Amino acid sequence: MNNRSLWRVGLVWLWMLWGGAALAQPVTVTDDRGVTVRWASAPQRVVSLLPSLTETVCELGHCERLVGVDRYSTWPAGVQRLPQVGGGLDPNIEGIVALRPDVVLMATSSRASDRLEALGVKVVALEPKSHADVQRVLGKVGQVLGLPPEASARVWRHIDAAVSAAAQSLPAHVRGTRVYFEVNRAPYGAGATSFIGETLARLGVQNIIGPELGPFPKLNPEFVVRANPDVIMVGDRNFAGLTDRPGWRGIRAVREERLCVFPIPQSDVLVRPGPRMAEAARVMADCLARVAPPTAAAGGRGRP
């Protein structure tokens, strides 16, 4: 039995010790909009409109409460058998209401909250953007599910320890490598204040996008040319045409083929701020160990 299985068994035992009686207790949660939502007992029918929230419900051991998900929720594999009710930008309101949810979990940026609440559906809007947000959202979802605080705290400890382990696994020459992580071909990059940027920092590398630009800024492609990163990370969905942009073939990462092009399953892990953040750190660490230039930490970074 692997470590993840062991701590999931621990969550099950924790839930048994907590007791089914907790389900009958009133639940009150204040979401990221500042809206307070109340239930007479813990919600049993949950619809999730954000993949990271879907994954959080399941990681907390309560996948069985999900009765519907958005079209982008693909993990764990079992959620793909659930009814799909659109996405955050184009939710199927009738489909959601037909599922008779006790609660709908969604992003604060979703357009669905007002319409659902007008129909009497309870909504909890949460949007993790940083590591601290992931920890906080774990706690909020745990509250919604009526779980003891230790349940979400245990999951977070596992995530945090695994990210640290990924960092410790890297060879010394990787430290200081200058990295550009592209999240969308517009292009949008992962800035230092994003959850991706925070993971890169914990891995000991330098993000070419500073905190002053925000978490996911839209960039002028010339910005990346001037920054001349040692390594470029990008999902397979967004890779087409990247190296053909004006001036990009002269970027060190492109010139020396120090590119990490992640297949779709890995890319999904990397761009979702949720319980698989530890797996994301391992994926990035494997990439860096494989392609980071041996001179990255020797002061020669970012030079043609």
Keywords:
single chain; alpha/beta; Rossmann fold; five-stranded mixed β-sheet; four-stranded parallel β-sheet
Name the CATH class of the largest domain.
Answer: Alpha Beta
CATH architecture of the largest domain: 3-Layer(aba) Sandwich
Radius of gyration: 21 Å
Structural class: alpha/beta
Strand content: 5-15%
What does this structure look like?
The protein is of the alpha/beta class. Helix 1 packs antiparallel against helix 6 (about 150-170), helix 5 (about 130-145) runs antiparallel to helix 6 (about 150-170) and helix 6 runs parallel beside helix 12. About 40% of the residues lie in helices and about 15% in strands. The chain is elongated. About 40% of the residues are buried. It has two domains: about 20-145, Rossmann fold (3-Layer(aba) Sandwich), CATH 3.40.50; about 170-300, Rossmann fold (3-Layer(aba) Sandwich), CATH 3.40.50. A hairpin with a 3-residue loop joins strand 7 (about 180-185) and strand 8. The longest helix has 20 residues, at about 150-170. The model is unreliable at about 300-304 (pLDDT under 50). The chain starts with a helix and ends in a 13-residue tail after the last helix.
In short:
With 304 residues, the protein is α/β, with parallel strands linked by helices. The chain has helices at residues 3-18, 51-59, 93-98, 113-118, 131-144, 149-168, 195-202, 221-227, 236-239, 252-255, 264-270, 277-291; strands at residues 27-30, 36-39, 46-48, 66-69, 103-106, 123-125, 178-184, 188-189, 206-207, 231-235, 259-262.
